[in-house]
Design goal:
It contains four helices and no strands. By secondary structure, the chain is mainly α.
Length: 123
């Protein structure tokens, strides 16, 4: 897989994650969870993909590094809000089942973007 294919696959993956976060947040609203938590998760979880797409269209290497840094921060924040929801023990069984794959993907995305950020800064 070349670099272009990797970027396209990761763009699709981050969009799929954003859609999963949106769907999860809609369900959380039905459970009457605190709106502030839902809003923060929604913003951070959807910002990963949109900022990554923007990074791939950066005007320079420094612009790319800056934008990837934003993606990394959004991925970290998403992981944080998912942990808060999990550790609050406020979910029903159905929501808990939906949370597990989101937490797994969140950790993987954060790891990927941390690696991309470090590699980009070294070059």
């Amino acid at each position: 897989m070349d670099n272009r294919d990797f970027k396209l696959r990761l763009e699709k993956r981050t969009k799929a994650f954003a859609i999963a976060v949106v769907t999860f947040c809609i369900y959380l609203r039905k459970l009457n969870l605190p709106e502030a938590i839902i809003t923060q998760l929604l913003k951070a979880g959807t910002a990963i993909g949109s900022n990554y797409r923007e990074a791939n269209r950066a005007e320079s290497k420094n612009d790319f590094i800056h934008k990837i840094g934003i993606v990394e921060k959004e991925a970290s924040e998403t992981e944080y809000w998912l942990e808060v929801i999990d550790e609050s023990h406020i979910l029903d069984k159905n929501a808990s089942a939906q949370l597990i794959p989101l937490m797994k993907e969140s950790k993987e995305l954060l790891s990927l973007f941390t690696s991309i950020s470090k590699t980009s800064k070294k070059r």
